[in-house]
Amino acid sequence: MATLRLRQPTAAAPPDRSFWLQDIGAAACTEPLQGSERADVVIVGGGYTGLWTALRIRELAPETRVTVIEADLCGSGASGRNGGQVHSWFAELDQISNVVGVEEARLLCAESVDAITELEQLQRQGTIDMDLRLDGWLWTASSIAQEGAWDRAVEMTAAAGQNRFRPLTAQEIERRTGSSASYAGIVEPNAGTVHPAKLATGLRDLAISRGVVIHERSPVIDMVAARTCSVRTPQGTVQAEKVVLAANAWLSALPELRRHLYVVASQVIATAEIPELLDQIGWCDGASICDSQSHVLYYQRTTKGRVVFGRGSGNVAFRGNFGSSFNRSPEHGRDNARELRRVYPALRGVQIEYDWAGPIDCVPEHVPVFDHLRGHPNIFYGMGFNGTGIAQTPVGGRILASLVLERKDRWSASGLVGIDRRLALPPEPFRYLGAKLVRSAIRRKNGIEIHNRKPDALTRFLAQLTPGHRKQ
Q1: How confident is the prediction for the chain on average, in pLDDT?
Q2: Distance of CA 114 to CAs 89, 161, 170, 306, Å?
Q3: The pTM is what?
Q4: C-alpha to C-alpha distance for 54 and 212, rounded to whole angstroms
């Protein structure tokens, strides 16, 4: 038997939580684990991946006893603090094809389209009120260097017989976004925005209604890996034959996974409610918007007229170890606020009422990976959504459910299963030092290119050494 120790999360203080969580007064609604319990499957992590996996298992095998263990409250991690952008996997068709081949990549992308439809049905039926608005996803360029960032994905999507994207003129972009900062791009019409915390807590409530046992405020201290695993929290233990690790960036505590996983920070701000001003500049709908910088900007207008404006900053955690410093930056989103003023000069005097940050689990291929731990065929995991997960984690939940239930189907046989074929990262301290050097180069490159100037050769060279995610 082996004992696996997980990283202990530092729950964000109430003022440091995301706008989304504060907006709905999100709180735990289930009791912490106390005493000893039994389950067939225990899932560590109450975010999108864990909750969708629980729901998929119950769909396929309703008799299965599923328990979800969450350190804080469901959605308190990346699931409740992201930018709320909903778009299909077709934007990453080229990257996914590099991992699984073109044919399966097309199928996975189509499944993410079905996942958007599933979200729409959950809202239409009144099951989850998530503020879903399918007003489109705009992928744009605001400098010469960003032009055509989408060309490969569009080309491959068209070759697959899918009509997912439509080109946009500068006039259309300005009319849709209220900003002239971006002047070229594409739109995925069947995409948009969501309230991440409403979705996360809605999935929690749905899982409970379908017989899943959930224990919030129950951080996992360690786990004894055996034929029957024991998952221990401060006040209790769950024994189960199968375990699913769906803990996002916290999986970096396991050396086996850390070889393929790096943790970066993403910073988000939210303005005061300014619906009249946004109407005045022409930003009226619920589209999600991204630019094409290496440290991508992603933003939306909320239903009540706030601007939520995020950026993948690229801050990297040494050995994947992070704490409260990743919950809120000491700069309080100043970089985001500066970029907001550049993109929206009309909002220069608008107050920033919320700022928050958080860790994201990333893998070099920018495509999630699923597998079981080496030597422990009953302990499964899914990681590496790289900040793009609202329409993708429902698909990941199907893969994990099939693995857990030992089903022989296209999900368990997916090319996304198997970590041995994935890239391994350099050891520390070289990984951290290199990441800091590359991050600095990317920031310089972005700052120069946004003014349509060309960076020096060294900066360009260093900036190309990172896997660098382009969308959030």
Answers
A1: 95
A2: 11, 16, 30, 29
A3: 0.96
A4: 7
